[in-house]
Amino acid sequence: xxxxxxxxxxxxxxxxxxxxxxxxxxxxxxxxxxxxxxxxxxxxxxxxxxxxxxxxxxxxxxxxxxxxxxxxxxxxxxxxxxxxxxxxxxxxxxxxxxxxxxxxx
Length: 105
Ligand code: FES
Hints:
Blueprint: E1 2-6, E2 12-16, H1 23-30, E3 49-52, H2 54-57, H3 65-72, E4 81-83, E5 96-99
Parallel strand pairs: 1-5
Antiparallel strand pairs: 1-2, 3-4, 3-5
The structure holds FE2/S2 (inorganic) cluster.
């Protein structure tokens, strides 16, 4: 499946992702800027914050209470904010577009 990352300078990077990978893992493997994923996807660091494209947001499972709490503490959260470690690549998400945040700390 394809995942596209929109970088801070506006450039897009389209990546081939394996089903079942998290978007955080995809980003880290590709060296996408500002997606860090320090905790390895256990929802304890918040450094995988990203902004999901508005057309994709409602295709994702709703965030858990814990995810929402972590997002509140991230840099410049907004209505499109999600933890990329909680987004699993799937057929339904083929073509997903996310933007990277300006910072994670
Ligand atoms: Fe740590 Fe997502 S990788 S919360």
